[in-house]
Amino acid sequence: MKGLMVKDLRLLFSQKKTWITYILLCLMMGFSMQGAFIVGYTVMLAGVIGISTISYDQADNGMPFLFTLPTDREGYVREKYLLCLLMEAAGAVLGLAVCEITSLIKNGSAVPMDDIRSAVIVIPVMICLVSFMTPINLKYGAEKARLVMMIAYGIVGAVLAAGLVLLQDILPNADHSFWVKVKVFLDETLGGTYFWTIPVVLTVLALGIMYLSYRISVRIMSNKEF
Amino acid sequence: MVKIDSLIKRYGDFTLDVSMNTPRGKVTGLVGRNGAGKTTTIKALLGLIKTDGGSVTVMGKDAAALTAEDRKKIGAALAESGFSGLLRVKDVADILAAMYDDADRDSFLRICGKFGLPDDKPIKEFSTGMKAKLRVLAALSHRSDLLIMDEPTAGLDVEARNEILDMLRDYLTENEDCSILISSHISSDLENLCDDIYLINNGKIILHEDTDRLLDSYGVMRVDEETYGTLDKQHILAVRKENFGYSCFADDRRYYEENCPGIVIQKGSIDDLILIMVGGELL
Questions:
Q1: Which one in A202, B172, B252, B278 has a CA-CA gap of 20 to 30 Å to B65?
Q2: Rounded to an integer, what distance in angstroms lies between the CA atom of residue B149 and that of residue B163?
Q3: Domain B2-211 has what CATH class?
């Protein structure tokens, strides 16, 4: 896996234009946005850049050669997920650094902890996004994956819209005491002693989804022929 | 080192059905026209494709079960697949050093420099010959026990082909126990390199012979139709219809020299072997 990681890092560092655009985008967002929303974007972009290494591998029929090297299908998948997690972690650190620095320059003070917590909640969502994109990229290749992703987002959007319409019908008839309990719980966890509970729980859930996605990706790669 | 026993792989109408061996310390050639099944055979023994039957054993293990550790002992160069074009030779050197225990970064860079491969230029800017040299040098970089080369010289000019073949000969001199399986449709590449040769056509092995015996004992006769009609055919493997009559490929040149004094029989070459056995009719 070490060799694959070296390969991917070399591939990523060879894309100087991507990194310059990424850094400029971070700085622009840092100066134009309030709070720590930028963290969500830096994490998402970092994850997508990590996934893009799959398309570099697939370009020019590179996969057959890759699997003559000392690796196996599962090792390849493991390295991709680890790379994406590392990229997202680096994206989070960068995003936090940029928003703190720009906040100090703009406002003369650090970003409030509430804002940082709200931004950090986006990280599990981005982990889920990578978990969704990786098996699709491995199965269909980068080109077809874009089309599949668009269709999938369309379906998810339609399901969410239908769900909201349904909730509007259900909520007026719901047991209000339950929703009161939910509100009390959220108030406690959002502002009180359990300030970091929601981000931690969501991150654990997201990592669980990522593991599921990893198993699916291993299965996809095991069935592939090159 | 490599044992393929009744390997079956089907792609639509095409069926690969081969058996072959590459002993330790020997160089085995797999020769045949484009589309004959050479690359499919090599992909099967590298575990890159699933097989529909038979067994493929590499260094005593099922090819499909080769681990990363097993693959450290194998060096492979594929015809149309290699490192990403975005990487540079110095990146490749780092990757190989991270992957193989026996790969030495500085030594790899030095050898690449010797063969005219710049270390700071993206591979996508290399010529076809430079890319082929890099693929072979990468396969030779880690003192592997088994080299698998799929058409390493395809699409190259004579000079580049000779350079690659010289690399392989030098490697063999330094690593006597190493086995090589090399496929090619360029016969002259194999004549001076291989200990034995398999001829593959339409997915089947149609001939297996020691290269020395093939070049020394086999022969080609070019005869008119009348002579062909009366010719003793017990040692003729294949014939090909020509304008003048027939080209006959025989497995015992001396038999015809001694028993058919009026017929000119020349030593066989791998080109003749392919032309007559693949393009002609097997007897």
A1: B172
A2: 15
A3: alpha beta
Among residues A49, A77, A64, A71, the alpha carbon closest in space to that of A135 is found at A77
Chain centre to alpha carbon of residue A194: 24
Enumerate the domain spans of chain A: 2-222
- Optimal mutation site among A49, A68, A224, interface B, most CBs of chain B within 10 A: A68
Amino acid at A119: A
According to DSSP, the residues that pair with A90 across neighbouring strands are none
3 state DSSP class of B8: strand
Q: Report the alpha-carbon distance of residue B227 to residue B263 in Å, rounded.
A: 9
In this complex, do A68 and B76 lie within 8 Å of one another by their Cβ atoms?
yes
- Mutate which of B89, B95, B102 to disrupt the A interface (most A C-beta within 10 Å)? B95
Amino acid at A192: G
Q: Which residues of B touch A61 (CB under 8 A)?
A: 80-81
Kindly report, residue by residue over B4-28, the tens digit of the pLDDT. 999 999 998 999 999 999 999 999 9
In this predicted model, what pLDDT tens digit does every residue of B41-69 receive, in sequence order? 999 999 999 999 999 999 989 998 888 89
ipTM for the complex shown: 0.85
Asked if the Cβ–Cβ distance from B94 to A6 is below 8 Å, we say: yes
Contact state of B81 with A60 under an 8 Å Cβ cutoff: yes
Are B76 and A65 an interchain contact pair (Cβ–Cβ within 8 Å)?
Answer: yes
What residue segments make up the domains of chain B, in order of their start? 2-211, 218-282
The conformation of residue A112, written as its DSSP 8-state character, comes to P
